[in-house]
Amino acid sequence: MNTEGMTYRRLGRTDLQVSEIGFGGEWLERHPREESVELIRYAHNRGINLIDCWMPDPKSRDIIGEGIRECRGEWFVQGHIGSTWQDGQYVRSRDLRSVVPAFEDLLRRIGGGYIDLGMIHYIDSEADWNAAMGTDYIRYVHELHEAGIIRHIGLSTHNPVMARRAVETGFVEMILFSINPAFDMRPATDDLDSLFTGYEGAFSGIDPERSALYRLCEERDVGITVMKGFFGGRLFNEATSPFGTAFTAPQLIHYSLCKPAVASILCGYDTKEQVDAAVAYETSDDAEKDFSGVIASAPLHAYSGQCTYCGHCRPCPANIDIAMVNKFYDLAVQQPAVPESVREHYLALEQTASRCIGCRGCEARCPFGVKIAERMQKAAALFGR
Ligand code: SF4
Ligand code: SF4
User: Which of 135, 187, 282, 362 is disulfide-compatible with 313, CB 3.0–4.6 A?
Assistant: First the structure.
């Protein structure tokens, strides 16, 4: 694996160092097997080391197994428990009569005798939660973990309320969650389809449940991997983007990677060129990654006063990383007392908020009207530096 052109991030308390650009495997089965195997090897040569396999079908699983076989130890596989293949179709199940054979099939086809991230598959509603927790299904997940067959326990969901509940269990070490600027403005729902529709009218800014989730994950050291970061491709086209403006891939990748606790965004690829386009994020400059102008100039924009951690307000004469200070401040004020981990991260910054000279040059550059100088004062007071 050529790691030079890639940034690796720690995936929360799993301590795994995952490539910030990952591989979502669900498009692999729509190509001839050899082509898809080659695509996985190509991605690995570009530094990608994290791949999601939620798919239960034998073809996808075999492709991934073959694609990673020669360097299994360099890959991290996110494999789902409860995604089963019945009569040629995907069925989500908590019934061990189908869950166990489907997981054993995954293990066999992926190879190596273990799965790095054993995912509690797709918990979007109260009913999903109740069907999984406190049942034989979750006992099976723990047994796999205790036996070292899954190295870490994760959970996948599109619903921030379920995600927060999962984080609060204490045993979920990472989550796979859907993040993009459109979803971020929608309230929690257990109906995935509804996240793709109904964007008419004004947005009211980032959904509080989602901000709270990102902060909770950071505080509890639960890493996030991202799915649906491109809103099914709709955000690339101004006609289908709910913002009325098109985004680029580096902007959307950056949007997800700016969120607290996020370690990697999993993109789907059909071609090597698409892998290159995603990995090009690594060499994109700040202007190419900057998504703030797109959101701020959109007719439906309503992020007013909220920091999106976009970094558009740079440079600062005191060399303060304003986005990071804002991120740590937001994390800290959610809690009755400043969490030690947040304080440590804040104090490790090269320049802290107390260096702010109040010039307000940054405020003129912030597209979201954040009162930065005032926040710097508050952050300095809160952290004592
Ligand atoms: S203060 Fe404004 S420009 Fe700076 S990171 Fe936050 S939202 Fe972006
Ligand atoms: S107001 Fe403070 S944070 Fe903003 S540019 Fe000036 S010194 Fe930097």
Answer: 362
